[in-house]
């Protein structure tokens, strides 16, 4: 099975605690490693969890609050010091380039590899990345500063053709590839054999949506509809709904309501306020609205399966 | 006894490892808390070791290589988020202000307290800080970019006067303070009683010198002569002397040679290259030149005693 797995590197909100680091996640889809946000100490977390950071070629930064990007300059430096030459793609607010450039200027540093910048346009469904396996689209989040979420969608996998059908219908080799991709097959007498009769193990196309940071905003729903895994921030418990509103963050129930309305398969909450030592009450609040909810926990890898 | 203790928060060089963080140290002299350098994740280390960072009012940044300052913007933000109003003094290269300001601008952030900047002049013995207990002076280090070391010197402590001498020599109350500070006492007949006959527990004035990052440079010696504790970087073992020279760093034996020539009481080495998993060989090399050497180890607090 092609990889589709998310590892949490940091799940705290603005102030880290001794147990929780600021936001960062590593998403592996088909051995493409996407780093999503890069809070302080992300490079240390990657090392701690034995994740090879030179395999990361694409970094997505949602917005310019420190807890989402302060680990980036250190990570870029370590990639350089360890001899990286592969170019690195950075999907980020335009202003981040200035922040990086000024630090390289004053430290009299350069990088041994090229950074290819892709600045956010803050347009829903804007295609940020695409290759033969994955497509990544933007979601405009609703936060105190311009903020971009991301939807990562796996492209359809080829199905396995049933060996007996090749013989039965005398399918020529040159047609097999099309059938694996979903084509029907036309017999010599003009009869159409539907694709579903020719293949097995038809895979589900999986998707992951990242929504942090954002206040409760139903306009996100069409863009995250039916995703397999939704990460939605839940900085506060319900009793702090006013505080959530003031700071453009969400509560547990708000995250779960978005998950429910968007009919996602599973919700992961995170970006917890430092005030919460025990996360079980946050999970309980979210589950009361949307049962298939899990907690973001540092070091834990969540695999999204592709069984239909 | 007045506090004089150094806690290591990070002892790695440029690339952190899963076990060692970039440079940061917390020095407590008489309950003044001085943060020396602030590598990435310093705020996380402070929390981990249960050191209250709101007590830090003075931060000294040696130079603008990322492993010495990348944790600063995050620490400043957390101080703000936790409600700090006390002004914070920052002793640093002038360019750091621009790096901080641009990040606050792009994150649309402000701080609830004032930063008072004191820019390095890169002059040996330049007085950076002084109050009734402590004086801090600059040392010009020799690194690839402008770099400043620091010497922290405790001011003389008042001695305890021997109770029997007050009676014996009929010392008036108004003279006691001067005697405790070191004055002799003149009897009515003109005879001088030396201070050493009047007081006990005469304390040694303690000092700590921080030399990181620097290549081997004997011109530092006069400014760190006889300090009680010298932290001198030892990025490399002796076999990498060429590499040390190229990168303006020091080897273990070079650090120990400086300690020996400066006749310091104790040497602490640190700023270890990530290549060294086991630090015992580094200690052995340094001790071969200067026996009273210890390793910088994260979380370990070294107390400097004041026994003469």
Structure notes:
2 copies of one chain form a homodimer. Chain A has 308 residues and is of the alpha/beta class. Chain A folds into 2 domains: 4-157 and 203-303, 4-Layer Sandwich (Metallo-beta-lactamase, Chain A); 160-200, no CATH class. The first copy, chain A, contains 9 helices and 18 strands. Chain A has helices spanning 42-48, 72-81, 95-106, 163-169, 173-181, 221-224, 241-246, 252-261, 280-289, and strands at residues 4-10, 24-29, 32-38, 56-60, 88-92, 115-119, 127-130, 134-140, 148-154, 160-161, 185-186, 192-193, 199-200, 207-211, 229-233, 266-270, 293-295, 301-303. Chain A has a 7-stranded mixed β-sheet. In chain A, strands 7-8-9-14-15-16-17 form a 7-stranded mixed β-sheet, covered by helices on one side. A two-stranded antiparallel sheet of chain A has the order 10-13. In chain A, helix 8 (252-261) packs parallel to helix 9. The interface between A and B is large, with 39 and 39 residues.
């Amino acid at each position: 099975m092609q990889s589709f797995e998310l590892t949490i590197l940091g799940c705290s909100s603005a102030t880290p605690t001794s147990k929780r680091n600021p936001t960062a996640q590593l998403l592996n889809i088909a051995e493409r490693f996407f780093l999503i946000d890069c809070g302080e100490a992300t490079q240390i977390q990657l090392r701690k969890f034995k994740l090879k950071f030179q395999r990361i070629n694409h970094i997505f930064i949602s917005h310019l609050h420190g807890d989402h990007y302060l680990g980036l300059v250190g990570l870029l430096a370590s990639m350089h010091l360890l001899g990286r030459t592969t170019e690195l793609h950075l999907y980020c607010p335009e202003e981040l380039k200035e922040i990086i450039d000024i630090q390289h200027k004053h430290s009299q540093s350069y990088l041994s590899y090229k950074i290819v910048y892709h600045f956010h346009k803050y347009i829903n469904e804007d295609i940020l990345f695409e290759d033969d396996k994955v497509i990544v689209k933007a979601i405009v989040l609703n936060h105190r500063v311009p903020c971009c979420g991301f939807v990562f969608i796996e492209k359809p996998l080829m199905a396995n053709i049933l060996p007996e059908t090749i013989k039965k219908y005398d399918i020529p080799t040159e047609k097999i590839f099309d059938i694996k991709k979903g084509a029907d097959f036309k017999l010599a007498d003009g009869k159409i054999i539907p694709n579903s009769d020719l293949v097995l193990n038809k895979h589900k196309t999986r998707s992951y949506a990242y929504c942090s940071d954002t206040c409760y905003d139903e306009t996100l729903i069409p863009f995250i509809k039916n995703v397999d895994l939704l990460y939605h921030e839940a900085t506060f418990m319900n009793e702090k709904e006013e505080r959530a509103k003031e700071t453009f963050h969400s509560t547990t129930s708000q995250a779960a309501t978005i998950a429910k309305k968007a009919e996602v398969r599973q919700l992961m909450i995170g970006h917890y306020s430092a005030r919460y030592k025990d996360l079980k009450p946050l999970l309980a609040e979210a589950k009361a609205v949307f049962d298939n909810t899990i907690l973001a926990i540092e070091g834990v890898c969540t695999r999204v399966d592709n069984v239909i």
